[in-house]
Model the fold of this input.
Amino acid sequence: MKHLTRLVTGVLSASLTFGMAACSASTPSTSTDNSLTFWIMGDSGANFQKLTEPFTKETGIAVNVTAIPWDSVDERLTTAVASGKGPDLLQIGLTKLRQFADAGALMKLDNELGSYPGLAASNFADAVAGQATAVGGSIVSIPWVADTRILYYRSDILGEAGITKPPATWEQLRKDAKTLADRGAGQYGYYIPQWDSTLPVGMTWSHGGDIVGPKGTIDFDSAGFNKMVDVYTGLYADGSVPLNADFDQAQGFVSGMAPMLISGPYLSKMIRDAAPELDGKWNVAMIPAGTQSSTSVFLGSSLGIWATTKQKDNALKLANFLSDPATQLKWYEIQGEIPTVKAALNDSTFTSDPMVKLYAQQLASSKVIPMVPNWDHGTGEELLNALNSIALNGADRGTALADLYKKTADTSAK
Amino acid sequence: MKQRAVPYILAAPAVILLMTFGIFPILVAAVVSFTDLDVVGLADMSKVAFVGFDNYANLFHDPDFWKALANTGLFVVFGVPAIVICSLGVALALNSSNGRFMKVLRSFYFVPAITGIVAISLVWGYLYNAQFGLFNWILTSLGADPLPWLSDPALAKFSVALVAIWRGTGLNIIIFLAALQGIPQEYREAAAIDGAGRWRTTVSIVIPLLRFALFFVTVTTMIAWLQFFDEPFVLTDGGPLGATTSASIFLYKHGIRLNQFGYASAGSLILLAVIAAVTVLQLRVKGKDDDV
Amino acid sequence: MMTSEKTGAPHSRRWARDAQRSGHSARRAARGLRVMIAVALTLGALTTAFPLIWMLLGSVKTQREAIAYPPLLVSQQPTFEYFARLFTELDFTRYLINTVIVVLIGGVGLIFMAMAGYAFAKFEFKGKNILFFCVLATLMIPVQVTMIPTYLILNGLNLTNTLVGIALPTLVSGFGIFLFRQFMSTIPTAMLEAARLDGASEFRIAWQIVLPMSKPILAVQAVLTFISGWNSFLWPLIIASEQKYYTLSVGLSLLNKQLATNPSLKMAAASVMVLPILVVFAICQRHIVQGFTMSGLK
Done:
């Protein structure tokens, strides 16, 4: 027993010293002078490499692209912060911005952007420019790509059901969805992605509500929010939406099971590829309006510069290149992601094609999710849990919402 | 070379590796469990404070933690017998003949065990899909109602467990098969001469001889279920509404996603204590059994 | 055969009674039972393997076929386009090479485990019991929660973002050491003692007596090590911060859960992950059962 105690204390003290040593042994980024490490999310790494070729040719700065699976962003942040071994520049989803900034991973850029006219806040879409995505009053990122939700509808199916135009309001959508769901068993009118925590926020805004209170903390309890809950749970109560979480939106849309849904721009590419015969039988529209407006959520990603990078200037140069309207348009062409730079959004690519034009239009009336410490796995997850427990599990609305208000109260949103 | 040093030299590399990557991290976790370490603290150790038993006390009052433990318990109670019975049954059947055909079949049963979890999630995700999945297509073709495999809280538990059982039987079948082949033929012949039927031979002679294999499989399977992680992680991410959140998933979410390292470490020590207690209990029972 | 099939579950008991009644009918019933078992096992085997057969079939479907409903079992216009894309557009060649290297590094772990197993099986030394207890205790530790400390250790050793670092945390397993010990306990001690009396060095004893006798368990462990190295997901994801060190499972998860990715492409990627291991297993499976048989797990 004595031996054991000695062993345990020995190992424990060793663990502490070693742990501390390991933690403080932060070696800065691995890149050498003429190469930059860039972290990109998802599988777009090869395309990004292609995008930056002209940059490398012009400046002699090589760009080392590492793709991070979307599912593993949290793991990567944690290990990179722990070891100090981050990239030089990285793509960050807007809902994760605060989390990265709080961890001290992002360089404050307030005093850096002045020397790069291309990075000035006025160049970018208002919803994400400058202070709109600042954390704690500091600018920690540069807008990169935009993503917003629009309404997709099958004009052929709506027509057969006697619906001549896409619903312009949520109330109308609920009615139309009911009509469409009545087509038969296994048929629905609309689809709610149960994993999308931002959609209810957009709906709340459209109904004149907000989710941030006057003190700058999360406060869901508003009239607009309650109207959103009416619509959200009402669609389920009507039997207008599929109940299962793993409903495939592309298949649902192509097969006609869910002839209306709200999704991002990537869905159009998918429909065109998978079902070219549907050409002309579907269209897109602005998302329905609530009692106040048709406000969508401005999603997408920003570029952050790693706090401890030794290559600040080169990283800013690359960011500047990526914010060039021509680069942004090229990225739309090869990857299908929408620009955040106004000049690119006003380009003929975005004004001539009516379907594409709509993205730009919808973006103009979109807002970003408030910068809370952890939206995806914190506040947003709580919101979804509350809504889904009411809609799917028959939880008492009053209790579930009161619980949500309590759990999320005092969550700072700045 | 000194004779006495030999075993130490032999064991050193493996033991050092196990200590470094097995025992030592859990000791670190033990220390961390008394702190409020988060991602900010990870970058700057001066911002970490000791909080005593706060994490443990908070866990005790966290209904989600209790729910995760309860889910884990449920998985153990149904999962362990399911895997042990399935693998023993298949092994007995496979062992009933020594033909070439059986050897070919054997491989089929082992295939799930060698498939990576990422590939598994992909394939099963499609099979389970409520609208477009194969299972529901079969059900509706047979005139039955489609099932919300991964969306209904109760059914989702079953669905993720089914994949784990599918994946978990392969190795155990091999272990049982090996044990079966180690039983001397004479035992069975003796039983046959005594006029014992096949069924009786199996129940009263073969299975008792498999005692060690049974014990081994039960212990390892139970530990695996107590640590149940992969399948719910990739298929449901612990949902719907926490229905498939096992203790490991709960800890992972708090540790990695919410960066509450102190809280997660405290939870992991509790989980480890539970696993150790269950294992020791089994060893005790086995010890008593052997005395008889 | 038909009759015995209809009797269902209690067949074996009935067979037991028959056996006592007459030898002739017993033989017939025995054959019936055997056929029944074979049929049941075949059905079970097909069901078990079905998800993977589905995956292989899915990998050659066109995008249209992949999302067709009702689901299409066999492609009408099979295409290998998606396999080609994996290796041309995506970096699967590199992921494949990395995975092979990680598996090869695992071979070193195999030797370490064999050595430790030998020490625990055939030597008496101070601290043996507590060390062996620690080895077994590692089986109980949930991996996900020790991830961060383990990462920090590797970082302290400057091994993050290396293939060695990816392989290291799972290089040896308590389970493997335990199996080696079980097996090697069955080697007669007298044999080793005799060699020692003859003046053979410890190295020679290990190399010329213990190792050749341990071939069956080495085969088992080699396959298990291969499988775990090939499929490992968590560590490659966390340790490799540069894409050039990604393994197949990380490459696959890059495609995973993205709405815009084609299902056939994912199925093809999954097939690339599963096929090599199927081949390895098909070749080695005979040795696996044999190795386990002799490890005294009964």
User: Anything to note?
Assistant: The mean pLDDT of chain B is 87. The first helix of chain B runs from residue 6 to 32. The interface with chain A takes residues 23-24, 27-28, 30-31, 39-40, 42-45, 125, 128-133, 146, 148-151, 153, 239-242, 253, 256-259 of chain B (CB under 8 Å). Chain B has 14 helices and no strands.
